[in-house]
Amino acid sequence: MGDYIVLAISCIFVNNILLGQFLGNCPFLGTSKKMETAVGMAMAVVFVLVMAGVITWILNTYFLVPFGIEYLRTIGFILVIAALVQFVEMFLKKSIPALYAGLGIFLPLITTNCAVMGVCLINVNEEYTFIQALVTSFSYAVGFGLALILFAGVRERILLARVPKPLQDTSIGLVTAGMLALVFYAFKGMV
Amino acid sequence: MAKSIVQEFTKGLWDEIPPFRLVLGLCPTLAVTKTVENGIGMGLATTFVLVCSNILVSALRNMIPSKVRIACFIVVIATFVTVVELLMQAYTYPLFLKLGIFIPLIVVNCIVLGRAEAFAFKNPIAPSLADGLGIGVGFTIALAALGAIRELFGAGTILGINVFGPSFQPFNFMVEAPGAFVCLGLMLAVMNLAKK
Description:
Number of domains of chain B: 1
Number of strands of chain A: 0
Oligomer: heterodimer
Number of helices of chain A: 9
């Protein structure tokens, strides 16, 4: 049990997926201008990432490895993720319309979110067991949500500040993300 | 006609240079540019995928039904990414290890999908090839430049050659995660300044 807690902490803080591993940075900058969209994106990622992590792990362990076709991993994983996102979208639309309205446009965007694909590949490369893969996927997703929501809070404040013209918008966003990354960098060596 | 093909190529070098003008494909940009060599390797791999997928998508554009186009693009891109992955594993193994999961992640690089959707699906083969090549070369230049700045200050070297002499204290911040964000942000600011 202790091992899983250490694994979770290392995935959420020490190797934070956005600020330490550089995965999923496009939605990080794209959806962090408003708190509302940041929360929507964070929830959608947690939802899809956990499911994708589990399904790709099963695909890899029980299908790709026994048949010796690991070279199809890239194509297989991306197809699974794309199909999953589509399926989740249809399912939510029918059965939980409130959640669908909340996640809305963020769901289709997740197909090209490299955080999802990245975590699936990390799970496989590190040769995690099923439980470890589950814990890792969930913790990375929580780390993604944490960093995104913190960053959205900071960005809402920046709108009130006077930023020099060349630095406006994406540029100051990146510099701010750097400062946030510095905060997370302080966790290095903790685990 | 010939002139417009040149234009399609050159727009990728400045007007629409990723990741500065088109803010896409940030993940590989930030992650692999610790050194110039990694930046160029990543840039070339992406260029190859971009050019091939643009050509194939453009060639098949009348056959792909527009409802399932995104899925078709992804399959085309994933195929070429697998090709690159296997080629790099065979011929440039050390670089393949350094770039790690970022090679399979070219599949979800929004630049490639973005060009297929925005350009190749609507244009004939020759301009699509020029467009893919231009954007790819632009991306490679951007990665090399960012890699050069980070390597120069973070390790005191360029392409592994020592520049500042033995007494140089490396500025570790630049090669770590926070430095990547700050460095890219400041480069973007300089480009905004130059545009005016």
